[in-house]
Amino acid sequence: MIDPATAFSLAGLLAIAGWAGLVVATFVKALRPYAWPAATVVIPALLGVAYVLLIQEGMRAADGGGFGSIAEVRALFANDAALAAGWLHYLAFDLFVGAWIAREGPRAAVPGLLLIPCFALTFLFGPAGLLLFLILRMAFNRRANPESE
Hints:
By secondary structure, the chain is an all-alpha fold. Helix content is 81%, strand content 0%.
């Protein structure tokens, strides 16, 4: 069994390390071969292992909890193990999306300074950061390829 409070704390530190690596690698190209795999594979995989352990415990212990209705989700997340698993789920997927933004941004000619708000929004509000990046990518791709209009 993994302690939910410990997993929550350690996962937060891991995620912040991954995000910091993405930000620094945005401006220091020599770090990209290290930061991108860490943020895309290593850290999300570690969070995934902890997630699996926590969600198993949470599903066993959650009385009436599940994913079939909002009431079941509320009951599930009343359990600390399931709640921590839910948080790790967000951390892993948001970081994975952030790493994709970090790789795709230069390909789409989005300036590094404009990627920083995408990273912040993705870390804090997931889909809002992805949406901002998709808008920027579309705008900068059109500038780079005006004949595509």
